[in-house]
Amino acid sequence: NPNPSPPASKGAVVTSHTTSIGDVIARSDGDTLYTLTADSPPHFACDSSCTSVWTPLVTNGAPTAQGEANPSMLGTVTRPNGDQQVTYNGHPLYAYAGDSAPGDTNGQGEYTGTGYWYAVSPAGSDIT
After folding, report:
1. Strand-strand pairing, 64-65 and 54-56
2. In the predicted model, is pLDDT for residue 53 greater than 90?
3. How far apart are CA 6 and CA 123, in angstroms?
């Protein structure tokens, strides 16, 4: 085939994981995903230095759901740097640098000066 089609973009995978605070939305590696109460896209309260601790879940292509994650709640929003960040129930998702193992929820309830960080249930609500 002289004109092969380009490889398909690989979308981020969002799944669920059982933790000490209940079932949460997680990355495919089991890392808990969080939302920031102060985020209101297109305004992001977590930018620049914040993203070195709270890593935006970005995707190249449409995100997909596994486990208890609801595919109809997945979406994306464009960050100021042009990255496509995965959203769940309209809220941008982040992983926390303080979580070292699948199922850790060390970021739960953290306050960072702009708002609170909460893990997200598969039903789409913050676990508070």
Report:
1. unpaired
2. yes
3. 35
